Amino acid sequence: MSDEKRDNPGVVAPPPAIYFAGLVAGLIFNYFFPAAIVFLPRTIGIIAGIIFVAIAGFVILAAFRAFSAAKTNVEPWKPTTAIVSSGIYRFSRNPIYLAMTLLYVGVALLLDSLWVLLLIIPVWFLINFGVILREEKYLTAKFGKEYLDYKQRVRRWL
Fold first, then answer.
1. Which residue from 74, 75, 77, 67 is spatially nearest to 11, judged by alpha carbons?
2. Within a domain: 9
């Protein structure tokens, strides 16, 4: 096994795939078991969905810019070469996962799908336990005090 394959947090799956799987599962449930209630008036769902998607896009761009400036990999299955603590990472240790959650919720609102919205719960648990906690363990082992100090200064989500 190559060093690069060992030098990563060992996440359970690529995070975008986890969010996408939740979205697809929600749409399948929605097709076979349509919600008997309208959970939001259509106009509110569209406006809120657009706002969530726009915020998610901004956050993702800011996070990718910070990773690029630090010259480290954004993909959690590749080695991390630096702790990114500038830009949007001064406010959140996981802005990309926050943005993917906002994007997911925004799409659920735009699609007016209660099933998609409800499935954010298992998606979030999988992201938390199968991705974030593994990343934190990896970063602590790799960067030690530098990462622990950063973790002490900056909240996980907001």
1. 77
2. no
Encoded amino acid at 75, one letter = E
Distance of alpha carbon 29 from the chain centroid: 22
What domain range is 99 assigned to? 14-32+39-153
Q: Is residue 140, in this structure, part of any structural domain at all?
A: yes
How far apart, in whole angstroms, are the C-alpha atoms of residue 137 and residue 41?
A: 43
What is the identity of the amino acid at 17?
A: A
The residue among 64, 81, 69 whose CA lies nearest residue 7 is: 81
Contact 39, 94 (CB under 8 A): no
CB-facing half-sphere around the CA of 136: CA atoms within 13 A: 16
Coil, helix or strand at residue 32: helix
71-129 pLDDT, tens per residue?
999 998 899 999 999 999 999 999 999 999 999 999 999 999 999 999 999 999 999 99
Q: Which of 83, 78, 44, 84 is nearest to 63 (CA)?
A: 84
Number of domains within the chain:
1
Q: CA 71 to CA 152: how far, in whole Å?
A: 23
In a domain, 43, yes or no: yes
